[in-house]
Amino acid sequence: MLLIKQFPSFGFRVLTALIIGAACFALYFHRAAIVIAADSHWKLPNKTPSTFSIPKKIWYKLGPRGMGPEILNWTDSCLLKNPTFTREFLTDTSADQYVKTHFSHLPDLVETYLSLPIPILKADLLRYLLLLAEGGIWNDLDVSCENISIHEWIPEQFRLDAKLVVGLEFDVGYDHDFPRQFATWTVLARPGSRHLQTVVDDILNEIKATKHMYNLTSTSELSLGMVGDVVDYTGPRRLAVSVLKSLSEQLGEIVNERNVSRLLSPKLIEDVLILPGYAFALSANKYDGVKWPNGTDFVHGSPLVTHHYAGSWKNSNGGEIV
């Protein structure tokens, strides 16, 4: 696996970024929310104890075309503003080896992952597996970090309890109701999240159901036409549905989209921190005219990342080809 660390001559730029970040953090609204204690039940070999903070590592997955200047600039922005973090770029080969090594105790999962012929499905599953095994931050290649340091993304009052951090995608400023989903281009987690385990289990079950429906003998026979909307199958909608289901099971009561809709500030439910739309998806939300419940004007906080919507997976192959 290729480990790329911070370039050494960034001193002045790092100091400038940290000063700007401190100023922007004052604009980021942190409010109270639901906190109910519980333990994660899913175990991984040599798993880091759940009391540890989110690891300071950013994960990326390269496509067959590798990394051009634009991607390098976007990914560099995260290290520039977070000089104590490391990053790792996985290739197709190193990602396959990672899954074989870290999930050898789950041979059915390994076989399914290695056999997936659709790149975006494989990339979606990979992000959940990486965060399960080691935790850290997953970023898509077309994500750049803004001026608030990652250390400040989790409000201080939630840092002890938050084990999974997700951000709403489309949420505020629409005059009709619709299913909510969590952005998958940036996800933070401690290792061993029971909620991410549910996401993985649900994806594996979905793949089994599709194979049964189409009478397939191997996962390698799957096609995009069989799986339907990738957003629902492995992407942002899958992440939201499975995490809310897992929270419901953990709490013994229904947790649904009404609990996470039209958020104006971060909300902690059990050990999952849900960030408002402006955090990871400012361009997908509309805050003009929005007010707090007390009638005062709402001014959104600073975005944490910008997603540049390169959309390399949106083609008939479901992913980048050479």
Automatic annotation (TrEMBL):
Q: From its record, what is one biological process in GO terms?
A: protein N-linked glycosylation
A GO-annotated cellular component: mannan polymerase complex
| InterPro entries in UniProt | GlycoTrfase_DXD_sugar-bd_CS (IPR007577), Nucleotide-diphossugar_trans (IPR029044), Och1-like (IPR039367)
- Taxonomically, the superkingdom here is Eukaryota
> Signal peptide: which range, if any?
none
Molecular function (GO) terms listed? Answer: alpha-1,6-mannosyltransferase activity
Q: Which family does it belong to?
A: Belongs to the glycosyltransferase 32 family.
Descriptive protein name: Alpha 1,6-mannosyltransferase
From which source organism is this entry?
Blastomyces parvus
